[in-house]
Amino acid sequence: MTHKYGIYQATSKSCVFYKQDDDGNQSTFNIFVTSSKDKKDKKDLFAFIDNEQMRQDNWASTKDADIKDLIKAFGGWASDAPVVFELEAQNSLSQCLSSVLKKEFEE
Known about the structure:
By secondary structure, the chain is α+β, with helices and mostly antiparallel strands. The chain is about 35% helix and about 30% strand. It is globular and about 45 Å long.
């Protein structure tokens, strides 16, 4: 089964990607960046996969997700994605994760 992939939203605070099967059922991969309540200059990262329409297991990160785990989950979720989507998704992920990555490299 092939899936259609796309990007619903890509900002510096969130990214929402989708894949759709031939029957119109969708799964979304959601990423959110928020200001940490624990540390003033820190950003928290959350991610989840909503697979309800596809009747598959959902996935959610723990508080303050590890970027490597998030990328691994995204790769598994988009395993059959076309190269064009992967390139667009990389740009969106870079934009969305830039504030988190910037803080990690400064520490």
